Structure formats: structure tokens, C-alpha cells
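Z., the sequence and structure:
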Amino acid sequence: MNKSDSDNNEVEIDKRIYKMRAEICRTLANPVRIQILDNLKDGERTVNELVSITGLRQANVSQHLAIMRQAGLVVNRQHGKIIYYSLKNPFIMQACDIIKQFLVEKLTENHKIISSVKITDKT
């Protein structure tokens, strides 16, 4: 394998990794899924508990959970007829927390801008 082939392989691997990262971001790009993850951070929950928390129908919650399971964000276990869901890896909550911090900073900046506009308009 020459240098050019090696570089091409690295580029292809990078593209696959970017695609995988984008898939995780697409999975997180839904407020219901973020809400579900937030409610799983302290431990496993049943589908019925998540239905109660979200106010959605069981079919909708199950669909969101299936998407998150397919993306590798959550896992499930069955005990009798009850299915419990939990985070596959708690690191995903660190990503959610960073996004939340970013949002708080952005909203704070926007508030400062809006406040300065109001002050300017009063004069």
C-alpha cells in the first residue's frame, strides 16, 4: 500500500466517522428524545413511566425509544411483560449537558442584546 492509498483509506474512515457522528446528532435532534434521555440519566424507566412523563401515546414513545436503541443510545431489558429502558452509556448525557450550557450562554447573550436595544430605544 502506497502513501496515496493510505491517505485515501484515512479519508474514507474519516467520512464514515463523520457520518456516524451525524447519525447520533440526528437522533438527538428531537426534543422528545432529549426529554427521554434526561429522564433516563438517573436510572432505568419503564415505557409506561416515560409515557406518563412525556404525555405522549405509548406507540410514539416506543418509536422514539426504538430509534434511540438503534443509534446505540439506550438499551432495554424485559422483566415479564414490563420493558425497562436505560442509557447504554452515560457519556451521552455529557454531550447533552454541553449543548445545554451552550444554549444558556447563547440565551444570555441574546438577553444582553435585547436589553441594550430596549435601553437605546428609551433615549
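The mean pLDDT is 91. The two ends are 71 Å apart (CA to CA).

Let me know what you think.
H.
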